[in-house]
Design brief:
Blueprint lengths: L15 E8 L14 E3 L2 E2 H9 L3 E8 L4 H5 L5 E2 L3 E7 L6 H12 L4 E6 L7 H9 L7 E6 L2 E10 L3 H9 L14 E5 H4 L4 H4 L6 H11 L5 E3 L1
Parallel strand pairs: 1-4, 1-7, 4-6, 8-10
Antiparallel strand pairs: 2-3, 2-11, 5-6, 7-9, 8-9
Helix pairs in contact: 3-5
């Protein structure tokens, strides 16, 4: 039997009653280094993301692999902009993929919901996120967009009630974020619902040095940029 969820109130301009989860467990092979430590004009990319996104949420959880927790902990401020608390969730293994990163973050979340985004997605749009949040239904356990016919697991909302299904999927050897979707109630946000919003740029990531240069232009940030 699938659980039914209570719908949190949505108040314009207020925090969403959810945790911001920044997934940073990947190796970034196409970029030439771990994107978690990508520096843009003297600031880490996650710092740029915190500056923009942290004030929308109740807390921030940085989800990282075991080898990155030490270096990251020495860099994180005590709180994000607006005084939003920051905590670190650590994967149990480097080899379990992004689904393990989501699992560790959901296990740490103090809110009933988490908004998961990759550490290489600096252009997430507030209007798009809030629109997705507003489409939550009582049965929702995942809220994700479908773009070009494909579900987008980042960025998306996940209920902490997904944890049993996530654990089950990992135990079966699943690594993909969408690998447990068939076990839970997924609210799909179609492009038609987002058409008046800047939704395409909201889902853009940084996979190559060219991507980074393009995103810098869109952010209005100036080079230099380096992999630390």
């Amino acid at each position: 039997m699938r659980m039914r969820r209570c719908i949190p109130r949505v108040e314009p301009g207020a925090h969403m009653d959810a945790s911001l989860v920044i997934l940073g467990g990947g190796r970034g092979t196409r970029m030439g280094g771990n994107k978690l430590f990508l520096s843009v004009g003297g600031r880490f990319l996650w710092e740029v993301m915190l500056q923009r996104m942290a004030p929308w949420f109740r807390e921030v959880i940085m989800s990282v692999g075991p080898r990155d927790v030490g270096p990251l902990s020495g860099l994180l401020p005590p709180a994000a902009p607006g005084g939003v608390p920051i905590r670190v969730a650590v994967d149990r293994s480097e080899a379990l993929g992004p689904l393990e990163g989501l699992r560790s973050a959901l296990a740490e979340a103090r809110s009933g919901w988490a908004f998961a985004v990759g550490c290489d997605m600096p252009l997430v749009q507030h209007a798009v996120v809030r629109k997705m949040w507003s489409l939550m239904e009582s049965r929702s356990m995942v809220i994700c967009a479908r773009l070009g016919g494909f579900l987008e697991p980042l960025h998306a909302f996940y209920s902490t009630g997904c944890l049993p299904a996530v654990d089950d999927a990992i135990s079966r050897g699943e690594r993909r974020l969408k690998g447990f979707y068939h076990q839970v109630e997924v609210t799909v946000v179609e492009e038609e619902s987002l058409r008046y919003l800047p939704y395409r740029r909201s889902f853009l990531g940084v996979n190559t040095p060219k991507d980074l240069a393009d995103r810098l232009d869109q952010l209005g940030a100036a080079p230099p940029w380096v992999i630390e």
